[in-house]
From TrEMBL:
Stretches for region Disordered: 1-21
Catalytic activity reported: 7-[(3S)-(3-amino-3-methoxycarbonyl)propyl]wyosine(37) in tRNA(Phe) + S-adenosyl-L-methionine + CO2 = wybutosine(37) in tRNA(Phe) + S-adenosyl-L-homocysteine + 2 H(+); 7-[(3S)-3-amino-3-carboxypropyl]wyosine(37) in tRNA(Phe) + S-adenosyl-L-methionine = 7-[(3S)-(3-amino-3-methoxycarbonyl)propyl]wyosine(37) in tRNA(Phe) + S-adenosyl-L-homocysteine
Pathway where it operates: tRNA modification; wybutosine-tRNA(Phe) biosynthesis
Quaternary assembly: Interacts with RNF144B/IBRDC2.
Name under which the protein is recorded: tRNA wybutosine-synthesizing protein 4
UniProt keyword Heme, yes or no: no
InterPro entries assigned to the protein according to its UniProt record, in alphabetical order: Gal_Oxase/kelch_b-propeller, Kelch-typ_b-propeller, Ppm1/Ppm2/Tcmp, SAM-dependent_MTases_sf
Length: 681
């Protein structure tokens, strides 16, 4: 390729990377405006304020909190030093200097910022035109006609326009600006080095270690590029012409730690953001943040946090005191599953059905009812039926006789004798849906061609259930399971959450025959309050697995609600080896085996696939999924599943996906099947 073309391509990539700064600062302003953190200076660096989604606000909060944690620790360790410095690489429109200056935290401290010349010029213009920012500088701004990389020079703040890949130019300019190479220095890099080719980012890490003998390197970047969320994350930045380079060569926290130790740093601690948030952010602060905005995107929040890390690396024994500390008791014990050599085959079904938060039930062999959920077309009030005929599966939209309304994360439970009960859900995180509906599918005609719409083939009769007794509070992300007591069938509603309770631990029995909420004695230690768990009918009772608890930590407990003469009793069974904890999964009991599929765990290197738990022997087996024939990232959370035929051990997985932070929304566009024959025989 001619040199001129290569240069133009490089300039184009550099410009795209600079564009990520503009988007990032708008998101930071949004988070600050909603009270996630205090920063009154960021607003001066944006032309127009835009409110971001709660998920993005939380994501930028945990980034801000992690960096602030490291800076405060650095200042604490160096408080008696005659001079200390912050060197921010790729600083963009960060307001760090102004915030620290206002907090009177820059005692005997100087901030140096380095970024592309165009970014530095734009930032200088914003500072120069703003009386608040300009008033916080105690010396002069270089005049617009001045040449050279130094754009702002003040007693405690220096802004330089340089390409950090050019080591000799950076060293020369920092020398001229007054950086003391022997003084304790914090080098800050927030999602900067990963945009460089790895050979260049490694050089930056090496020269920083070589030239700053008493220093702390703080870095915030992405990891785990190969799982479904990571693939979507990579594609997003690729479309922006801002390829993530380092994540390929250094895909996890262990690789990043080795990287810094190999490049001359003496000690290194690296935590993903789930470990940081749950282990190093005080519970009181987490509680404050978690009630700032209505929120119900747990899966995407935890996946975002598992794909970013905060790292500290030290040079000099003195600076080792400023390293991140590991939580004294890890809230997320490391789980490395022992995978079975068998991988379960996954195949796509050529039917266009997508959505998250849907609920399904198997009405009869080859007939699956789908209700609610949200998709690219919006939140759906129209139900669908999946029908399997001789030529395969097809999807039919059906108009209910009574409007079921827009609802997500509800339940549809098949009843003995026919029909199903729709219960709970939400239309928004502030609006849970109460009431129950009994639904029945009318007769189906012979299956037509796969491309036939055939709306009249299925009728959905809906009747609102008028129930007596003490109704449970409305909820979503709960379970509703058929259990039996003294010859009667009950719908047992357990757990979930609502607009006022982050997690519920109560259980309620509805007698289906009398349509009456009643009390039945339940003995033993109940599962802790949770939501997004699974519950399957089992021997007259049910088996509960997984879920997300009040602290926001996934569970891996298996608890059986067993019937007895008085009512029921909870029996917690110890499964060996312990399954990977998870939530937002699906589960089915097949004989004496509980088959659990998908879900979310907080460590991306242990993405849940399938675990089979033998309820008699109390043993478990983890199996991977062979998704080589699936042409898109298969995200197995917020989905539903059905065992479509007891004669054929095959699971049908429908829907799933979510809003992948700021990387766009992904939906699994078609159902898939999982062949269970290798584990069920």
């Amino acid at each position: 390729m001619p040199t001129t073309n290569r240069k133009k391509q490089k300039q184009g990539r550099d410009t795209a990377v600079q564009g990520t700064n503009d988007s990032s600062v708008v998101s930071k302003v949004s988070a600050a405006a909603q009270g996630y953190f205090h920063d009154i200076f960021l607003q001066h660096f944006v032309c127009k304020v835009a409110r971001r989604a709660p998920l993005i606000n939380r994501g930028y909060y945990v980034r801000w909190r992690a960096v602030d944690h490291c800076i405060r620790r650095f200042f604490q360790v160096t408080e008696n030093c005659p001079k200390r410095q912050i060197l921010s690489l790729g600083a963009g429109f960060d307001s760090l200097y102004f915030r620290l200056h206002a907090d009177e935290a820059l005692i005997r401290a100087v901030v140096f910022e380095v970024d592309f010349p165009d970014v530095a010029r734009r930032k200088t213009a914003l500072i120069n035109s703003n009386i608040t920012l300009r008033g916080m500088l105690d010396a002069h701004l270089p005049s617009p006609g001045m040449s050279g990389p130094l754009h702002v020079s003040s007693g405690q703040y220096h802004l330089l326009g340089l390409d950090v890949r050019e080591e000799s130019q950076v060293v020369e300019a920092l020398d001229a600006a007054g950086l003391d190479w022997a003084a304790p220095t914090l080098i800050l890099s927030e999602v900067v080095l990963t945009y460089m080719e790895t050979q260049w980012s490694d050089v930056v890490i090496s020269w920083a270690a070589k030239l700053l003998p008493q220093s702390l390197f703080v870095m915030y970047e992405q990891i785990h590029p190969h799982d479904p969320f990571g693939r979507i994350m990579q594609d997003h930045f690729l479309k922006l012409n801002s390829t993530l380079h380092a994540v390929r060569q250094y895909p996890d926290t262990a690789a990043q730690r080795r990287r810094f130790l190999d490049k001359g740093w003496e000690q290194c601690v690296c935590l993903d953001m789930n470990d940081f948030y749950l282990g190093l952010v005080p519970e009181e602060e987490r509680c404050r943040v978690e009630v700032l905005e209505p929120f119900d995107e747990y899966e995407e929040w935890h996946q975002k946090c598992s794909h970013y890390f905060i790292l500290t690396a030290s040079r000099g024994s003195f600076m080792a005191q400023a390293l991140l500390s590991h939580p004294p008791v890890s809230p997320l014990p490391s789980k490395s599953p022992s995978w079975s050599p068998a991988a379960l085959s996954v195949k796509t079904i050529p039917v266009c059905v997508e959505g998250l938060g849907m609920a399904s039930t198997l009405v009869s062999p080859g007939q699956v009812l789908l209700t609610g959920g949200s998709s690219r077309g919006g939140r759906g009030a129209v139900a669908r039926v999946l029908l399997r005929g001789q030529e395969g599966w097809r999807s039919i939209s059906v108009e209910p006789s009574v409007d079921l309304g827009v609802r997500l994360y509800h339940t549809v439970t098949s009843c003995p004798g026919g029909g199903a009960v729709v219960y709970g859900g939400r239309s928004s995180p502030l609006n849970p849906i109460g009431g129950l509906f009994k639904v029945n599918l009318g007769p189906c005609g012979p299956p037509g061609p796969l491309d036939s719409d055939d709306r009249g083939a299925v009728k959905l009769c809906v009747e609102q259930m008028v129930c007596t007794g003490d109704h449970p509070p409305p909820r979503w992300r709960h379970t509703a399971t058929i259990v039996s007591h003294k010859g009667k069938n009950f719908l047992f509603v357990f757990g979930g959450k609502n607009e006022s309770e982050a997690v519920l631990g109560d259980g309620h029995f509805l007698c289906l025959e009398q349509q009456h909420w009643t009390e039945i004695p339940v003995e033993g230690a109940a599962p802790e309050a949770l939501h997004s768990h699974s519950a399957c009918s089992y021997e007259g009772g049910m088996v509960v697995f997984g879920g997300l608890n009040r602290r926001g930590v996934p569970l891996g407990d298996t608890v059986i609600l067993r019937p007895n003469d008085r009512g029921f009793w909870w029996d917690r069974i110890a499964v060996q080896p312990p399954p990977i904890p998870r939530y937002s999964h699906s589960a089915h009991v097949i004989g004496e085996k509980l088959v659990v599929v998908g879900g979310v765990w907080l460590h991306s290197d242990s993405v849940p696939c399938v675990v089979v738990i033998n309820l008699t022997t109390r043993s478990s087996m983890e199996l991977s999924l062979d998704t080589t024939s699936v042409p898109w990232p298969l995200m197995l959370h917020s989905f539903c599943s059905e065992l479509t035929d007891s004669e054929e051990p095959e699971l049908l997985l429908i829907g799933g996906g979510g809003n992948c932070f700021s990387f766009g929304t992904h939906f699994n566009p078609q159902p898939v099947t999982v062949d269970l024959r290798p584990v069920l025989g």
